Amino acid sequence: MRQALTLHPDFRCAAVRRIVVDLARPRPGVLALRYDLTGDVGGLVLPPPAAPDRTDELWRHTCFEAFARDPGGEAYTEVNLAPSTQWAAYRFDGYREGMRPADMPPPAIAVRHTDNGLQLSAELALADAPFRLGLTAVIEEA
Predict the structure, then answer these.
(1) Does residue 130 have a pLDDT over 80?
(2) pLDDT score, position 80
(3) Do the beta carbons of residue 87 and residue 109 sit within 8 Å?
(4) Going by C-beta distance under 8 Å and a sequence separation of 6 or more, which residues neighbour residue 118?
(5) Of 33, 66, 41, nearest to 137 (Cα)?
(6) 22 to each of 90, 113, 117, how far by Cα in Å?
């Protein structure tokens, strides 16, 4: 499946022309995401490469996010994926309530610069149970 992200109406980003996310379930319990950012990567602030460690507050800088909400409920999991290969995962009881680290193994993250931009791929360990998925990106311009 492929999903184009929509620019937030209150925040314009001259460096990014578009972001498209491909998602798949390659095997049970795994969600594969590939964020393709098309634009002027030189106009972005990207975190430097780092060890693929769990790191808080990645959302303060350029990162890609996925939100998986339990169907019919308010609880959800938030995953942050940085171009540095750092990541974070949180579990919430409701909208920004009851935040705690999510119990999940480190995602496999790969970052690649392309002729037209940047590509970040990740495999997340998410249960095979149904969930609603929200996809976002936080972009920091230079």
Answers:
(1) no
(2) 97
(3) yes
(4) 36, 37, 41, 44, 46, 83, 111, 112
(5) 66
(6) 22, 17, 16
How far is residue 94 CA from its own chain's centroid?
Answer: 19
Average pLDDT on 129-139 reads: 89
Give the angle subtended at the CA of 40 by the CAs of 38 and 45, to the nearest 5°: 105
Tokens 């790969």 locate to 110
Distance CA 75, CA 91 (A): 7
Q: Report if pTM > 0.90.
A: yes
**Residues 6 or more apart whose Cβ sits within 8 Å of residue 112:** 118, 119, 120, 121
Residue 34 · residue 81 · CB < 8 Å: no
Determine the average pLDDT of the residues in 39-63.
94
- CA–CA gap between residue 43 and residue 142 (Å, rounded): 5
